[in-house]
Structures are given as structure tokens and as C-alpha cells.
């Protein structure tokens, strides 16, 4: 997996897209474990609690397009909830994670979905991940329930296991595929550029033109 | 067997003072440098300062309100009786960790025994008596006890209209700290000075507001006086509390409110500091850029006119040291530094500069939207330090264990800690036999804190305390430019003490430039 930096992005002929993705969910459902499995291929049985939020990037390839995902792995503890908007603001994708062995975390996931639908960008791609799928003996949330909830709300849904890596890449890839590769202005401030420091930026209407000094969010066809 | 030689009381002590003060190395060290201070340990916290900086640097509306709540320090009467054995061995420290593991045990009997044991207990409760935290055991089992503590505190405040600071009950000392909306209680069997007990409690208080911020806590308690704050204290936050309590017992820097620097050649440190400062120059929202390695300060660059208080630095060190979650990722963490501004909140960009996660970069800004900017700075700093081989230099310095005692070569010398009062930084030798076990380490530092308490007692105005205890002799010396604590073997003679102190001071004068950060770096 080659990491994609800005220099190579400008030099490449292939299209490069950059998206901001946020992981939300109750504490200890496995958000960090999913991200670490996806980005580094690692799994720690005793993953330490995230403090604040952790930022990681991963580059994947979808239909000849290089997609750079900027992942915001947020802390699940209650005291951080008020900070969540800071992370999902400007995000083009979100994974809401729950733990299949804990019904409360599923209820909490629904609250997150509702909050995203109300507060986040209108075209945000949301996925629901029922993590810890390897612990079937302790299951409290039925697949069918989560499936039907996801369908009603137009979410991508998969049960995942960061431990066995089941569906981990798949759910990230499913989102990457669903992300609009020709999107324009609405997501301009989602990327890693200096665009989202509170100032407003005029963004070119043309989706194939990169805005000078702003590689955030849109697909620069250079 | 305890024998005190306190200045001007015994003829012997006069001799010690005059001998020490006539040392040639003493004259070299007392001058304060003209350099602006890196730290300011006299700095008073300013509520609303972060808000002010944010408003001035950008036109963004501020969202964090900043109530003006800073408690005044109450001075505490020194009532430690001097005829008690100062070197009481701490028999129970050993079992402390085992005891903590029994948190889930429901056995009430066990809890009662735990409370009676001679470990140093620390409790936090809310003003209305709700349990928040206990160092050992399970706070749910301590509802009654915490109720009693709350009653004692509020009785003193209502009936006597004064604060309850300190209680002695037989061999037990109990220190109280009431900081709205919490009450902090410490119970100990040792001879530590009440000043130190209060200081330890204050660190715990600062740790709580550092993670939760005072304004948020107050808001919540105002709206919901019965709120169970434990909902905000998950395992990660509890670990921070446990660690700050432990750290205080193992680190003299927290006691002396001074930072400890990694020993590094001055030119290397200079290059690191300049690289960081040059990268960031021009930013108005970023206040501090700190490089830490294994809890030691490598470099600090800052915006002119803003100081970091050493006790706030310890909160950052505790945050970085308490978790592996910062390793391999870039983290964005809201953190309150109470000695800077108890009402506001910094946003810290925390990341490591090397693959083995030894060298940590902490960037502090007042602007919550500036993650990208700080992340870019990090990339640049990372690259520059790597290209100039400076990251490797830091790692080499880390690998090089400096005992310091062997460089001074004095057979009766066991340990020393030297604080430069002008720089608010300290250096200490490595603990060797017999202090390599945790039990002995804690015991020695308790003894040093006892001596420290005597030395700093405002009523006595002492310059030197010399304590001959059962297993060691301790010298504490408060001079205009420095503070020195030296541990000798119990058989050290006056001659040895003087000679050895001379060597320590000469050594520090000689090596000063690599032991301390002398120059400030500004963005």
C-alpha cells in the first residue's frame, strides 16, 4: 500500500480523491481496533482507550482512482460527545460502530446515525458496523434487526471483526466505492488542506480543476 | 534515631552553613541569569486567558466561557512533631498494587482491612458527599466513609466558617482540599509535611480539571447537583489520576515544581529548538511546542510573553505517559492547563517523531480548528529533525544512562537532586542501591519530602536542614539561586558532606549547559 502524499498527487496522471471519514460509537465497541486493522493490519486484544481523537490516513484504489481516506477515530467516552461535531463536520463518510454483544451500544449507534442525518453534511455516506462478530456466543443484537434498520435508513451495513479481520477491508472499500468521485463544492472543506481554518473559500465549480492551495475533498483530475 | 541540625539552633549547624557558604563553587552558582525564564513558577493562573488569545488572533467567536474561580492558597500550620521517627519504613507500600487489584471484591470486611492498612489513601468526593474516586478499593463500598468526610468538611465551613485543612488522628494524618465542586482527602501514616500532602492533592485536582475542564464540570453540577461525575471518568481518566498520584511519589520535580531536562549537548538542543521555532514562526494561535522523551524535556519553544508552568508540564507528561493510544497516530486532544487558565482549553496535537515512539512532540494551540495546520507543522518538524540527524541524537542521549553520582566520585554520596531556581529546572542522579526497589524509592522520597517541608516552612525561615536518619543522612540547602537535596550514607562526616557538596556544585556549574535549557526559543 503506497501512501499518497501531495507531491505525488500533483505529479500523477491518475485521479486522486481525498475524503474525510469519521468513526463514531459507544466506548469499547472497537472503533480504534477497526481502524488499526484497516490501516496497519494490527490487532491488540487490549487496545487502550482513545483520548480525544486519533487521526490516520489510508490510501485505497477504487476503479483506477486513488482514494485517500483521512480517518478520524474518535473517543467513545461520554465526556467527549460534545466534541463530536468538530470531527464529523465536513466529513464525507462515517462509520457508526456498535458491539454485537451489547444491545446498549446498538441503541447508542442509532442515536449517532440520527445525529449525523440531522447535523452532518447532507450527502454523507454512513455505514453501520456490528463489530466483534467473532463473539457469536455472546450475541445480543440480531443480524436481521441491524440489517433492517440499516435498510430503512439507507446505510451500508456489515458485521465486522477487527480480531479476525472479517469484513474490515470490505466495509471501508464499500464506503470508498459509494463516495461520489466527482463531487464538488459541498465537501471542499473536508480535506487535509488548510482550507478549514474557519475562513471561507471560493471553490471552482469545475470538478476536474483543483483549487489552488486547496486539495481538500474534491477529486483533482491533474 | 533522629538528630536534627537546624540552622542557628546548634553550634554544629552554624559550622555546616559557614562551610557550605564559603565553598568556591557556591559563589559561582548563586547569580541568576539575565535570560528570560523558560518557565515561570510564580505565574498566577489567569482565567479567560485562552479566550483572550483566541479572540485576538482570529475573528472567530469564542465558545468557551471562563468563570473566574481560583482558590486562594491557605497556609497550613506546621504541626509535625519532630520527635517522631522520620524514617518510618513504609511496610505496606508493597501490597499496594495487590490491593488495587481487589477493586471488584465485594467483601466488606476486606474493604475495612484495606482502609486500616498503612497505604497512602486518596479519596475524591463531590461536595454533596458522592464518591468519585478512591486510590485503593472500590468507591462504591465507601459511601458511608465519604459521607463522614463530607460532613467534617462542611461542618468546619458552616459552624466554624473556616476551612478544614488537616487532621491528626493517632498515627494517621488526614489532609483535606476543598475545591469546588470536589473534596480531596489524603490519609497517610508517614511523616510527610502537610504542605506536600496538600501539593499532591492539588496535582490530583489539576489532573481532573485538565481532562474535564473546570467550566464544564461547574456547568454540569449547576444544572444537575446530583450528577455522578464518574460517568465522565472512564478507565483512561482514572489511569491518569492513579498515575499522577504515583508520579508524585516517584518524582522530585513535581515536589520542587521544576522540569527535568534530557541531558543533551547545548548545540544539539539549540538546533532542535531553532528548527521547531522556525517552522512555527508567525503563528498567533499556537502557544507552545514541546518535545518530550521518556518524560524528560528535550526542548520547548513558545510564543513570546506566555509561560508554561512546570506543574502544567507535568500534566502533559502524565497524559503522554499514561497511554499507548498516542503511538503510531496523530492525536487531537482538548486539554486544560489549570496554571495557565483554569477556565479555558488548549487543543493538543500529540504525535511521536520516531518509529519506536520514544520522542514525542506536543503542539498546543488555542484554536480547535487548527488540526491541519499543526499536522503540517508536525510533518515539517519531523522531516527537518530527521534530516539533520537530530532525532537520532535525542535517542542516543536517551540510551546513554548517566548516573551522575559516579561523575562526582564521592563514596558517601548516594543521591542528589539540584534545582536551579532561576530556570525552574532540576537534575537528579540516578537512584542506585539501596534505593532500586520501589519500596525503598518511595521511602527515600518520603524522607526527602519531610526534609523539604521543614526547609520550606515559612515560619522557620531555614537555609539548611541536615537530617541524620537511621539508614541515611540528608542535606537540604536552600540558596538564593538553587535548591539542593543530597543523600549520604549515615556515616558521612561533616568533612565529607562539605567536600561532596562542593563537587556537586562544581560539576553542575561545569555541565550546566547540557543539564538545563538555558535559552528560550520563540516562534
Main sheet of chain A? 6 strands, mixed
Proportion of residues in extended strands of chain B: 15-25%
Largest interface: A-B, 25 and 32 residues
Quaternary structure state of the chains depicted: heterodimer
Structural class of chain B: alpha+beta
Largest beta sheet of chain B, briefly?
7 strands, mixed
| Apparent shape of chain A | globular
SSE order of chain A, one letter for each helix or strand: HEHEEHEHEHEH
Radius of gyration of chain A, Cα only, in angstroms? 17 Å
> N- to C-terminal separation of chain A?
21 Å
Mean pLDDT of chain B: 83
Mean pLDDT of chain A: 80
CATH class of the largest domain in chain B: Alpha Beta
Main CATH class of chain A: Alpha Beta
Low-confidence stretches of chain B: 1-11, 59-94
The number of distinct helices of chain B, counting runs of at least 4 residues, comes to 17
Domain FUZ/MON1/HPS1 first Longin (chain B): 120-238
Function (chain B): Plays an important role in membrane trafficking through the secretory apparatus.
Organism (chain B): Rotaria magnacalcarata
InterPro entries (chain B): FUZ/MON1/HPS1_longin_1 (IPR043972), FUZ/MON1/HPS1_longin_2 (IPR043971), FUZ/MON1/HPS1_longin_3 (IPR043970), Longin-like_dom_sf (IPR011012), Mon1 (IPR004353)
